[in-house]
Structure formats: structure tokens, C-alpha cells
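pasting for ref
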Amino acid sequence: MLSDFLNNLLQLGFKDAPEPWQLGFQDAASPVMEEIIFFHDQIMFILTIIMTTVFWLIIRALTTKHYHRYLFEGTLIEIIWTLIPAAILIFIAFPSLKLLYLMDEVIDPALTIKAIGHQWYWSYEYSDYGYTIEFDSYMIPTSDLNSGDLRLLEVDNRLIVPIQTQVRVLVTAADVLHSFAVPSLSVKIDAVPGRLNQTSFFIKRPGVFYGQCSEICGANHSFMPIVIEAVSLDKYIHWVAIQSEEIA
């Protein structure tokens, strides 16, 4: 009970769902998302320096009557303002390529889940246990929400996964193009009818993580949210046992 209380208290400090007027990322819950946020902050730091320098040059050009000729004309300054942007782009390219390869890295999963997009809901299948646990996940209408629930984001059946576990998700669609996206986990992959796409994630902490279909898939495109609940391994095993009893 104490561990549950501490986990709930810890979750209050994280932003795992979108907020009104939000400008930044949701808090990271996976190593890949942490790297994405770090890379974003690094690029924003470089961008701030570039914008400040360019703004200063523009102000100088507008307010100073006489410029130093070698500051704006000449072979040397041409070489300098060609090499500096090239160096900045190279400095950005290496961590960018590292991140791309990290996101595409294939790791042997401990759990495989199949997610199927429909107009307009998601269905999930667990098939690693000798039997199949499958269920549909529909958005809860606004009229049925409880106090504290998130409008257009809550579902009747959450996708339950264990923390500290490599999870693979096989994504497809039953009708039209959908997109399985959960920002806190750095997950975004197309769901294509007749094709299986693969993505994976490793959740570091307990929590409830919200996403939505990110492909315009029809009239109710904005009403098919994704909710992933990450729990401890003991709770996950208990949940699987309950599902198996219901199947039996």
C-alpha cells in the first residue's frame, strides 16, 4: 500500500497528458523520449544564439551610418559565414543521426501487443500466453466522465503494460489509415490496412499515458484516443490472471 501511495504521489509531478495552451513536450516516460527532449533543447539553444546574432547585425545595419567594410564585404567574411553554418549543421547532424538510429533499434521484446485501428476505436490483442486476450477500447463520452477525467482522452479499456519491460507493438488497421501515437513514449506509427508496422517502447515509471490517432481517418477521427497504463510487474501479472479467468 505504501508503494502504491508513493507511486501515485510521484505521478502527480509528471505531465503525461496535454494541457491547455501547452507549448512544450509532455514529460518523458521512455529513454528515447528523454533523448528527443534533450536534442530539442540543444537545437533551441543553438537557434537562440543564431537569432540573437542575426538580430544584432540587423540592428547594427539599421542604426549605424558607417560600417566597417571588412565586416560586410570581402573574401574573409564570405569564408567565415560559409564555414560557421556548415559547422553548425554538422554539429546538429551527428546527434540527429544517433537519435534516428536509436529510434529504429530493434530489441528482443518481452511482450508483444497487436493494436488494430478501426473507425473509430482501437482494439488490442495479447497473444504471448498460449491464449489471446483481446478487447476494444472506446472513448468515454463526455456525459459519462467522472470528476478529474480528461475530456476526449479517457477510454473504457486501457492498454495495460508492465514497466521496465521492452514492449513491441504491431500496428495495423481494419478499414482506413490510422496512426498510433503516444507523445510521452515517443511512439508514432501509421496503421495501414493489410500491413503490419512495428514499434516498441520501454516505460521507465508507472503512469497513465495518453495519445490519439494522428491520421485524419474520417468524421470521428478526433474521438479514438489511446490510453496506456504502465504498472508494476506484479500488478500486470495479476491483471493477466484476471483476464485469463474471464476467458476461461
